[in-house]
Amino acid sequence: MAIYLFSKTPHHEVFHIPIIKTYYINKEIDFTHYDALVITSKESIYSLESSNPDWVNLPILAISSATADEAKKYGAYILGTGDGYGDSLTEKILKHRVYRWLYVRPQVVASDFVKDVKDLGGKIEEKIIYETSCNKSLKSQNIPIDATLIFTSPSAVKCFLASYDFLQNQNIIVIGKTTAQALPHFAHYHISPKPTVEACIELAKEYERI
Fold it and tell me: What one-character-per-residue DSSP string does 81-113 give?
């Protein structure tokens, strides 16, 4: 049996299918208008660094420890960290209610925490700095009928379904509940205990040993 990771970023322990492509949107941002940033992916960091290196001067609220660790590599100060889900950020943002927050985000988001923050009196703006799409240049892969499949985002599931079907003997691992909601109703899946690629792979290995 084999483990296949459907994501943009590879991992050396598994077969990687780069089913998603990312396009950075170079947008000039005046960071003096804000007191802190909300960052929900490593891609946001890469997009900011490519066109707005001054982002690193603002404290960061990161969606997860993995995103926080990536921001630290560029010298960012981490104000707080969520549990991997957007909904976990609302309370942390409102703890600093006087801050002028900027959420740098992809074109499509899975959580509407910004509306919750505004409804509760927080000050937050949004700017789209990257978008994702299915990798149309990817050649069709011969995936074994008993493979374990890992999905790290709803977009990865959507792009998979554009070219493949889920088979009965395949194990499906998803990084979190939001990604699980993108699966067809008939799909049997397991949610990773932590919203990280590493945790997904460890769970996949357990099923590979069964």
Answer: E--SSGGGGHHHHHTTTTSEEEEEEESS-S--H
